Amino acid sequence: MEDRLTDDERQVLLRLARQALREAVNRQRRLPLNLSEYSPRLREPGATFVTLTRRGSLRGCIGALEPYLPLVEDVREHVAAAALEDFRFSPVQQAEIDEINIEISRLTLPQPLNYESPVELLDKLQPNIDGVILIDGIRRATFLPQVWEKLPGKSDFLDHLCQKMGVSPDTWRRKKLQVLTYQVEEFHE
After folding, report:
1. Displacement of CA 30 from its chain's centroid (Å)
2. Does residue 3 have a pLDDT over 90?
3. pLDDT tens figures, 171-182
4. Considering the entire predicted model, what is its pTM?
């Protein structure tokens, strides 16, 4: 990612995320931000995924693939959603807050990946660099680039992404899917 945030901007986002996590779990109303207090880059639309872990295990992850809010607001919205609305987990409880670690992934705009065959698709994927979106009609799923750490094999990565999308793991081999890739700037507490 070319347009990286400064260390100060990252710290601002992490502080806002921590505050939004506390407010969400404690069911406090999130107060509006005065956007003029933030750098231009933090005020412009940005897309993030916020990942919450507790003792090294996933506790929630929610985000957006395309920007629709100022970056500072996007982070606050997604940390609250990851804490309370990730259907895979029960809502984060007040007693857990101090054990939760926050990771923010700021996404580039997804770009179509053109390919003609499953072999060419595999050749074009860049492990540990590309986040991947698979689309099959109304079904879609994504894995952040960090997922390559757990699924380093390209075929295995795509098999699991198809499963996440709700189709057979070998769908990407049998049918040409729409594929988009993006990169992230990842930082955490």
Report:
1. 21
2. no
3. 999 999 999 999
4. 0.90
Q: Is the pLDDT of residue 2 over 90?
A: no
**Cα torsion angle, 125, 128, 129, 132, sign:** positive
Alpha carbon of 127 to those of 37, 112, 147: distances in Å?
Answer: 37, 17, 9
Integer Cα distance of 130 and 181 in angstroms: 6
DSSP 20: H
Alpha-carbon distance of 47 to 140, in angstroms, equals 17
| Domain 7-107 CATH class label | alpha beta
Q: Does domain 111-183 have CATH number 3.30.1490.150?
A: yes
Question: What is the pLDDT, as a whole number, of residue 1?
Answer: 62
Name the nearest CA neighbour of 31 among 23, 21, 22: 23
Q: Name the percent of the chain in helix, strand, coil, to the closest 5.
A: 40, 25, 35
